[in-house]
Amino acid sequence: MTGVMDAIKHHATSVAPLPTVTPGNTIEYQKSGDVGNRTLWVVFVLMMLSSIAFYAMAFRVPAQKRLFHILTAFITTFAMISYFAMAVHDGVSYNEIIIKHAQKHFPDTFTTVYREVYWARYVDWSITTPLLLMDLALLAGLPGANILVAVVADVIMILTGLFAAFTVEEGPKWGWYAMACIAYLVVVYQLAFNGRGVVKGRGQKTATFFSAIAGFTLVLWTAYPIIWGIADGSRNLSVDAEIICYAVLDVLAKAVFGFWLLFTHDSMSDTTYSLEGFWSEGFSKDGAIRVGDDDEGA
Q1: Who contacts 256 (Cβ-Cβ below 8 Å, separation ≥6)?
Q2: Which residues contact 105 (CB under 8 A, 6 or more apart)?
């Protein structure tokens, strides 16, 4: 009897037990490393130096003719503040994305991805890109109605991009992205079509310069949504690579743009706006705007 029981016991323990625990959720953090952090500090310094240079250039001309200088200096100043916030990790949050892995014979598993979203970058863009558009619109001589449409479309583009960056579900995320792209097309239309049509009346040199610098800007701006789609959108680009790509674009679209605009502006009299009255004298005189080389009151 004892031998039979031992045989049964041996037979029962020779079969491996069926698994009762299935793999659970895994967590993945996508965040910046040393390369990304150093890049943020480098761009902060570049934007700071550019701002100092632009303010210095502004003080070299009369107050009546500082409009482009002030707008351009503000662009790099806000960019400097944004990059400082990102470098010290004050302008960063995590977006939680849950990815489902379907299993055939076992319960589905999930991967929870926490990716850094630099929301300070969107705050920067929501301020600096309208200022940059003002530079280009004033250079071309766009009417106020066209400037307003371009600026509002630009703000919509940035805000919908921010909403897309923090949206978890794929459908709504790409819906926000599509809205941002449509808004960007409105900006392109205002600059490339209306801007080129208006600037022809300001002389050949100004028209050629506007076409060059506006084309340069639009090429750079077109790269932003492409990077967004690869990085925040599909998460196929590391956070460090995302930081480097945006850093290169920001330096080109703000600092390099600014130096190009101001050096050329200072050498071309027909691009110079002379703002008097409240702009340069406060409430003591009536306001006036003149275009050209009239140095009266300078």
Answers
A1: none
A2: none
Rounded to the nearest angstrom, the gap between the alpha carbon of residue 293 and the centroid of all alpha carbons in its chain is 36
DSSP conformation class of 251? I
- Residue 141's region, left for phi above 0, alpha for psi from -120 to 50, else beta, is left
Averaged pLDDT for residues 252-273:
83
> DSSP class of residue 284?
G
Q: How far is CA 63 from CA 57, 98, 171, 213, in A?
A: 11, 55, 51, 25
Q: Give the Å distances, CA to CA, from 243 to 29, 105, 158, 168, 271.
A: 16, 41, 17, 21, 35
Q: Is 33 exposed, middle or buried (0-12, 13-18, 19+ CB in 10 A)?
A: exposed
> Which of the given ranges, 83-92, 109-118, 264-273, has the highest pLDDT on average?
83-92
- In eight-state DSSP terms, residue 1 is -
Average pLDDT over residues 228-239: 90
Count of other CB atoms within 10 angstroms of residue 287: 12
pLDDT (tens digit, 9 = 90+) per residue, 72-86?
999 999 999 999 999
pLDDT tens digits for range 2-45: 555 555 455 545 454 545 444 567 887 778 889 999 999 999 99
Write the burial class of residue 154 (CB in 10 Å: 0-12 exposed, 13-18 middle, 19+ buried).
buried
- Looking at per-residue pLDDT, the higher value among 15 and 134 belongs to 134
pLDDT at 290: 56
Question: Taking 50 as the threshold, does the pLDDT of residue 297 lie above it?
Answer: no
Q: Burial level of 64, CB count in 10 A (0-12/13-18/19+)? A: buried
In angstroms, rounded to a whole number, what is the distance separating the alpha carbons of residues 168 and 242? 19
What one-letter code names the amino acid at 203?
Answer: G
Q: Which two tokens stand for residue 141?
A: 């001589």
Question: What is the Cα–Cα distance from 6 to 68, expressed in whole angstroms?
Answer: 95
In the predicted model, what is the mean pLDDT of residues 243-262? Answer: 96
